[in-house]
Amino acid sequence: MITRRKFIATSAAAAAIPSAGFADEKPLFSVGLIADAQYVDADPGGIRHYRNSIQKLGDAVKSINEADVEFSIHLGDVIDRDFASFDDILEPLRELKTPVHQILGNHDFSVEEDDKPNVAAKMGIKNPYYAFSKNGLRFIFLDGTEISTFAQPIGSVIHQEASAMLAEFKAKKRKSAQNWNAAIGPKQLAWLEGQLKEAVKAGEKAIISCHYPILPDNSHNLWNDQEVLAVIEKSSKTVVAWFNGHNHAGNYAERNGVHYVTVQGMVDTADTNAFGVMDVFSNALKISGSGRVPDRVLSF
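The chain above was modelled as a monomer; its predicted structure follows.
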């Protein structure tokens, strides 16, 4: 069971990341972290045990509630497929005592074409990308599905743009040239840059969340990962971390002081869970992981 004070400093994953003394005796607040519950009422497919995500998510919610978090983040792919799956998997999330911020993932659009316009509302997402500030940190939530071959109506301008982009990247043999990946559009990218400039003016640090990774180079990355990375690196003294799901195995990279953390997918394995509670300090993030999610200290 996770508590605020649980942290195993000797874990292999945490040992790979330099630890730091915490400037604050107690965390400013805590955040629940979940990725890729990816539920559907279907038999297992390989290592993905879809039905088991109901129980896993319920167990995660109980632990997160006990940890007294300020809010939680689900990093996309709350369902695997079928619009009806939302009703079942959203039920455990309703037991959270504090808000949950959901992010759009590719599998969330594995529904009938007529249902795609209703996905965001069903997940409780009012705006596909947005931000808010708390205790000197700006939390920025991005929509990595914006330019894709799966979220937009077939034949639409954006669908055509995404298809052309995917074909171009396949010709260039880019690792991320996969139809389950996507890109962030110019308007959203400009918005992100504006948010980071505002954070600098306000003296805030920034934490960014998206379904897709941008580091390390991987077959799961955003198509335009380098464009997004360039925006972040203009404000690398402001951005603390980038959190994402999508790659169920998990991943980690650090570049110019920014931590890039891929949270392990809950749907993988029959009975080992995957979630965490992140304590936020003024100079570090301390993740207490459960199951496949390792403990980490991310200093800044």
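Confidence is low (pLDDT under 50) at residues 1-19.
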